[in-house]
Backbone:
């Protein structure tokens, strides 16, 4: 697949290789995180077709993207006590929410309104990109230079496969485990 959105995926490119229960997923989902200018940039891509939310409009905030194939990430403060969940549809639609603990939505947090997203889907694959302002992350107490971070993906809707870089894969799939996200330093 010729890339147009993530032509220069920042190094290092990493991969989600296995689903929650240990089965290898081919092709792997490639992703990267970097700081570019005043933004945290997340890119993801995979060389296979996807099933996207029927109401997902490129670049638009869309509820329940996770019910279809998505690329996601979770970023928290260093203690893992406050985090942002960001869902990115392969076509560029997005959803985000701030939490104060596992699945405890922070109703007082400022809403993310300035996410810039892009996506491209073909039968041969997909790629998507999101730019999150560093100022927004700072406003919710998250510093990419000292954080916890998990890349994730949901695939194969409606027979879901859950992929994540989280370190605790016990029990049923649950991405909302900030204590299990690796400590990260994005530069």
Residues:
């Amino acid at each position: 697949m010729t890339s147009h959105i993530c032509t220069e995926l920042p190094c290092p490119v990493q991969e989600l290789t296995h689903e929650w229960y240990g089965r290898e997923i081919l092709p792997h989902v490639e992703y990267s995180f970097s700081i570019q200018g005043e933004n945290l940039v997340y890119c993801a891509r995979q060389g296979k077709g996807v099933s996207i939310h029927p109401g997902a409009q490129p670049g638009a905030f869309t509820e329940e993207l996770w019910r279809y194939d998505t690329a996601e990430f979770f970023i928290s403060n260093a203690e893992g006590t406050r985090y942002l969940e960001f869902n990115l549809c392969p076509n560029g639609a997005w959803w985000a929410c701030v939490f104060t603990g596992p699945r405890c939505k922070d109703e007082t947090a400022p809403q993310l309104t300035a996410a810039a997203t892009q996506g491209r889907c073909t039968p041969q694959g997909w790629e998507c990109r999101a730019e999150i302002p560093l100022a927004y992350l700072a406003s919710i107490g998250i510093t990419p230079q000292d954080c916890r971070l998990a890349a994730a993906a949901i695939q194969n809707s409606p027979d879901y496969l859950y992929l994540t870089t989280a370190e605790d894969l016990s029990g049923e799939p649950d991405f909302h485990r900030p204590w299990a996200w690796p400590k990260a330093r994005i530069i």
Notes: The first strand starts at residue 14 and ends at 18. The chain has one helix and twelve strands.
